[in-house]
Amino acid sequence: MISITSAELSAVMAAFIWPLFRILALIASAPILGNPSVPVRVKVGLAALITILVAPTIEQPVPTVDPFSGTGLLILVQQIIIGTAIGLVMRIVFVAVEMAGEIIGLQMGLAFAIFFDPQSSGQVALIGRFLGIIASLAFLAIDGHLLMIALIAQSFNALPIGTDGITTLSLSLLAEWGGEIFKSGLQLALPVLTALLITNLALGILTRAAPQLNIFAVGFPITLAIGFLMLALSIIFYAPILENLIHNGFEFMSNLVNLPNIPLP
Fold this sequence. Notes:
mainly alpha; two-stranded antiparallel ribbon; 2 strands; cell projection; cilium; transmembrane helix; flagellum
């Protein structure tokens, strides 16, 4: 008769549970994979499947600690923090793109045209949603979702399972990475904002020259048309900016878990 001790059972559970929670935290926080429109069962099933494939490749020894002990819970929390931090880095990239759309839509006069975004569980401007879809397509085109899974698989050897997780310095750098939202968002919106600024200056001069002109009846369609025209002309130049932004995100994720940079296709 085969007998299994409680220590052996805890070791088997630990070898699966701790990687599972790190991968599940990544899927829950990462863009596209963590979209609320994806059913929870699909996320848990995908995380379990990835864990089954990744667990045998972990070279670093897994601590033989009871998962339900105090130390085991501390290790569990560390895995959740690591997975969430990795996914949050790329989520910031998508928020920066959507912020650019928010700024453009506000200057065009489309601030009232909003949609419900299931990913952020809030209201998103029309242009922001449009640029977010473009960023998602670009992310899938370079297999960004697969690169994230490859990075989380390699992170178990670079950042072993244990009580020592991401350092305080890395978390402070992650907070500073949040500034990329404003920096990249403004960079993406700058061409359209420049054209709209010139348009508003021209409308102001026109109003001074012809006071009887109804600026609200004339200005709104002009700014709307100029905004859409500049957006159509500049959209082809967004590809290198998005690629560079996603590349910087993966570079930051690699540095966060002490990995060499993953080359993008």
